[in-house]
What we know:
This protein is of the alpha+beta class.
Amino acid sequence: MNENPGYYGENGAPPHTGALLSHSTRYAALLFSFSFTRTTLMTLSDQALDQIFREARTHNGWQNKPIDDAVLRQLTELVLLGPTSANSSPGRFVFVKTPEGKEKLRPALSAGNLEKTMAAPVTVIVGMDMAFYEHLPKLFPHADARIWFVGNDRLIADTAFRNSTLQGGYLILAARALGLDTGPMSGFDAAKVDAAFFAGTSVKANFLINLGYGDPSKLFPRSPRFSFDEAARIV
Length: 235
Ligand SMILES: Cc1cc2nc3c(=O)[nH]c(=O)nc-3n(C[C@H](O)[C@H](O)[C@H](O)COP(=O)(O)O)c2cc1C
């Protein structure tokens, strides 16, 4: 589905050409200035790729080691730089860190996720703001993107879910880049989380991520992955 037909345009021409031209001119100038200040992107080291992908695991047990609020702020700032459609940024993040917060979460957790979530230093509720489009005048200022969504509930739901899920994925990888371990979970009662944490707001729970320093002794064996040929093709 084309999320923003006005942006791409029927004949490939974007709307509000004047505004976009000045935007692209500014963008070109910015790129030009960057070409003097930014070195060519390079493949990360094997050590970095191991930490983020090859050796990173989904954790079920946690060391008794807290995470500083400053690290949670740094993590969130990295996540918010990841791309979302029309820069819509529907993800909202509640870092449940206190015993009171964990008790509010407890009734919503599935049995298999209960113990490890209560033990994790932090549990992130990845939420999605169903009124994300009201912020588009700030986040996507060069086009009137808000009107693409107003009254289109299907597009709103698809965009909120797709992009907040992506932002949750960015959070997992950013956490690993900062030396943290994660344990994402969809085994919970979203209606209970919404009532406990998002009552009276336009935010709904998408999924949960335990965050901390993992206990390797509680890992399950790594499950197999598809090969390139099983999951991908180049056409
Ligand atoms: C969106 C999502 C939801 C998940 N839900 C649960 C869950 O509710 N409970 C659980 O124990 N594991 C859950 N997992 C963990 C996956 O089973 C795990 O990430 C996968 O088997 C890969 O494990 P590995 O990263 O250690 O290789 C979830 C993972 C993701 C990404």
